[in-house]
Amino acid sequence: MMVLVKTLVKTLGVLLVGAVVYIGFNVAQVYLVGRSDEVRPVDAIVVLGAAQYDGRPSPQLQARLDHALLLWGQGVAPLVVVTGGKQPADRFTEAEASAKYLVSGGVPLDSIALENTGRTTRESLLGVREIIRVRNLNSLLLVTDPYHAERTALIAQDIGLRVFVSPTRTSTIRGAENLSRHLREGAGVALGQIIGFRSLERLTH
After folding, report:
1. Burial of 164 from C-beta contacts in 10 A (0-12 / 13-18 / 19+)
2. Fold of the domain built from segment(s) 38-172
3. What is the pLDDT, as a whole number, of residue 16?
4. S-S: 49 plus which of 94, 157, 184, 202, CB 3.0-4.6 Å?
5. Is 69 exposed, middle or buried (0-12, 13-18, 19+ CB in 10 A)?
């Protein structure tokens, strides 16, 4: 009996260590991808949504949009796709707030496409997939916060999109909150790689 107990404890210990190493590897990947920049000419820049306040982008969303404006000014793509739906009481979607901000920054309205129903990263990217299918586009450059870049890219690839990432360098998520989000994203990516990101979305929303 004691031998069985010791074997079980040892097995559980090995599994625990393996799980910690696996999650740690994914946290490192989240960190590294968030500090990479794959900027290059593409068919469209995609800005992942974040909170907006009655048509005004939150500081987090504004940082993403400012980065998109920088890329637009460099002539990276002829189209910017903005994403994100709205909360029940909101008057505007995240995509609408983003489009308004980009227009004020000099991007022509006819060079902006709106995906304005997605409530999650995956839902938004599915909407983006439909937009680029209709327009017969292919390559995309994803703009989001550094901690969010790895999961966003993996989900995009999982649904068949050809993507590169260019995380904003002016993210408002810093300090302890930034560390916390990196850890959560690392754990989420680790689990998503095992059960699939569609299943992960069902578990977390």
Report:
1. middle
2. Rossmann fold (3.40.50)
3. 80
4. 94
5. buried
Q: What is the DSSP letter of 75?
A: T
- Rounded to 10 degrees, the C-alpha dihedral 27/148/144/168 comes to -30
- Report how far Cα 30 is from the mean position of its chain's Cα atoms: 11
User: Judging by beta carbons within 10 Å of its beta carbon (0-12, 13-18, 19+), is residue 107 exposed, middle or buried?
Assistant: buried
Q: What is the mean pLDDT of residues 67-84?
A: 98
Span 37-56, pLDDT tens digits: 999 999 999 999 999 999 99
Mean of pLDDT values over 94-122: 97
CA separation for the pair 192, 11 (Å, rounded): 24
Q: Taking the domains of the chain in order of start, what are their residue ranges?
A: 38-172
- Number of DSSP helices (H) and strands (E) in the chain, helices first: 7, 7
Nearest to 48 by CA among 126, 137, 157, 139: 126
The residues, ordered by sequence, that sit 6+ positions from 128 with a Cβ below 8 Å of its Cβ are 46, 81, 83, 115, 140, 156, 161
pLDDT at 41: 98
Whether pTM exceeds 0.85: yes
